[in-house]
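Quick one, T. Sequence first:
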Amino acid sequence: MFYFYIFKCKDDSLYCGSCKNLANREKVHNSGKGSTYVRSRGGGKIVYSEKFRSWGKTLSREAEVKKWPRQKKIDLILKAKKFGDKSGCNYSSFSDGFL
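Structure tokens:
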């Protein structure tokens, strides 16, 4: 399986990415060996993900969401939180004051 994810950086910015293993990817980002963007913002955590069977579809979804304004990404995360497992997506709670 492949995953599209949204990563909330410590400065509250959002980063979109794709991977094969969510837990490992979060560890890599927080070890400073992930993307330059996340590294420069001190790490953070994955707050949203979607599962795909195809790497191509995963990358297409990443490209689509990367173009969205910040508020639309937040709305996506909050919608997944509201509907939980019914949406087919995973989420983590935001820290206080995130929004």
